[in-house]
């Protein structure tokens, strides 16, 4: 740059030249954002206010929060001291919510993609243009192909309202929630088929004698009040059994660690139950009273001797017997944990059925330390979109396997395959709300193919993610710290304490910035533009929450005056209802062509030279959701590859080596990570954290950090009963980079 | 005696004229840093922009601007895409967030401690950011504030603000913008801001 003039000289001499420059005229066209205001002397003190009503959503446990707010700025998040759930405690992620709120990479304005899907170029647009475009494009798809031609991928509290609009009122059944189809749906459906209720994680750990975990890695998996229950149980002397191919944080606290061969858990559970029954060490009275089809069940699992299971599971006979005897000695006060993320091997419904049956065999329902659902508050009103008169055409009706025990929605692969093949009908419009299907759904290539053939893709999110790169229109949503939506309810965390219930509606701790909008507003505006205005069930987020609370005589204002949480007397949760049934032999399953008793279905073992890829949680992350969080990434920004020490020495790897991973289909990880050499994992498996290695370069911190496990899960496994994915049937080898 | 007395008001008048021109320039540059829309970013704006470059004798920059204007089919659309890429969200590539706190507060944050300081400074001078979707430490608002101060010929406060709350982050922003801002309009605008805000050597 050739600068001939200094600023001062220019200003001095520019009067003539400046006269020809109509700056003042140009400047006058737009109003300045800076306006005269009352003078505030420098150094004036500003109070920090405590704002109540926060409900966390850094993960989905939803701890109750307060915000420390100064001059409209959230400076700190704390647990709400009034909480009888998490109390004043929150985890690292809860604290780091501030960094999500003020992340400069966050979505700020509606944008349209003027580049390509997957390689976007964004242009900020007005809300009107964004909503008009979405409405027109989605309407065109519906008019041409019917409502079924819309696929919806929602996730999180704010996604319920929009996806119910599309599902109930518009009429598409093609909704795939990651929380069901790639997480806990199998558990819920298996328990429904066994004890006729989804189990949550409702085991009375503080008051139990034995905690039995199958894959649960508490401590790495941090849900505050759940951890409090677990740790109180251990403090009170509970024995801990951890079945896991890896020496997890829980295994490290275990009395018995069972390093089981991955995929064989059901065999072990069947052998335990068979041993207990054959040796008369089961809860015979409970089974007589509440069991259904127990004899057929007992007969059907007879083949599962301890020896047979030990061989299949690659663990000693004595260890299975030790676990079985420990459970028998302490029944019924044992906590057989139902798990949470259970979409592992494509044989998972059977394993979850077996867990529920084991709970029944031990009579571990309704008594101290057993499976005990809390008795939470009742009576909140529902606000939902009305069902239209459209009779939806279900993809499962065309499928070879109709997945009769599918959780609500449509199994992901039925949607994806229909979209890719156009059969039995085309799927041409896609609404993604708070989910990142690139990181939740295995086989990314197929997901991308599905997206590429769409006529229109709309995404709503808080942050840029891998999936937002595929949006045509991208809408910025308020975060959980800036909106009303969910009403968290529950009881005191320890049933040994005074029985209490709580109602805690999420309230904003600060106002939204930029042009971020809440999901109710966005959905209503879209509905109006699509011609469904008359069906709108609530005018805004405040009205929705107040309507729901009116069912129990409360309101936002009342609860705010009660410091954000309404607490009322609770009920004793112990006891068994008269209609309790444990369905050991399920005829409905049999009629649908599935095994009526829990059945072990073997899965493929690692081919020569490969190890099974296992994944799990980092204690300071919620998978991909926290990948750009400055504080959390400062604590943990990669995915150490757990490798058995003997294998490492045989293959010539040492601690700290940089490696990439390559799977059985020749797919290589895009990024690298370092090796963690440990005796704490089986020789036939490696382990990394899930959710890393984001593709999207808009994530300044999170882009390409660690290895994306989902990119290596290319071989699909689908659980036959539920249609949910199994995601631990892929195998990798390590490739040394340095 | 007489001559000294008559020179002082003359100097004041000169300074006042300079301040008023500077206020216009700050205001103009604030607009350049605002998301472009047709209400202000039109042909006349770009003519004024070119005239300013000519007055400054920034020949290369003037030529770059002219070249872009002659080549673009839709300058507003061009600038909207470019602005989004540079200052809002970009992929592939990196944005250069135009907020002071992102550069000053250690761990890349909007609404950081610096935002609070800047807001307090505005208030201590009797100003506040109103009716904006952007935080008060957005470069547009900082320039608007400088325009307001210059308009009132409040040189001391202007200098203090530039020195303590503007230049320290702007020089980092400038460094990033040299790597990222390829479009002549934004590259030159940021250079102009540098020119008009840096302390005289």
Give a description of the structure.
The complex is a heterodimer of chains A (738) and B (201). Helices cover 30% and strands 17% of the residues of chain A. Chain A contains 24 helices and 27 strands. Chain A is globular. Chain B is mainly α. Chain B has a single domain (2-197), classed as TorD-like (Orthogonal Bundle), CATH 1.10.3480. The radius of gyration of chain B is 18 Å and the shape is globular. The model of chain B has no long low-confidence stretch (mean pLDDT 91). The interface between A and B is large, with 73 and 83 residues.
Entry summary:
Chain A is of the alpha/beta class.
Layout of SSEs?
The complex is a heterodimer of chains A (738) and B (201).
Chain A: H1 7-13, H2 15-19, H3 23-27, E1 34-36, E2 49-55, E3 64-70, E4 73-79, H4 92-95, H5 97-101, E5 111-113, E6 122-124, H6 127-145, E7 150-154, H7 160-170, H8 178-195, E8 210-214, H9 224-235, E9 239-243, E10 256-258, H10 265-278, H11 284-290, E11 291-292, H12 294-300, H13 306-313, H14 317-330, E12 334-336, H15 348-361, H16 412-421, E13 429-433, H17 437-440, H18 444-452, E14 456-461, E15 473-476, E16 487-491, E17 500-505, H19 519-530, H20 541-550, H21 556-561, E18 566-569, E19 582-583, H22 587-591, E20 611-616, H23 630-635, E21 641-644, H24 645-651, E22 658-663, E23 673-678, E24 685-689, E25 717-718, E26 725-726, E27 731-736
Helix pairs in contact in A: 6-19, 8-15, 10-13, 10-14, 10-15, 13-14, 16-18
Chain B: H1 2-32, H2 43-56, H3 59-71, H4 75-88, H5 100-104, H6 113-124, E1 127-129, H7 139-151, H8 155-180, H9 184-197
Helix pairs in contact in B: 1-7, 1-9, 2-3, 7-8, 8-9
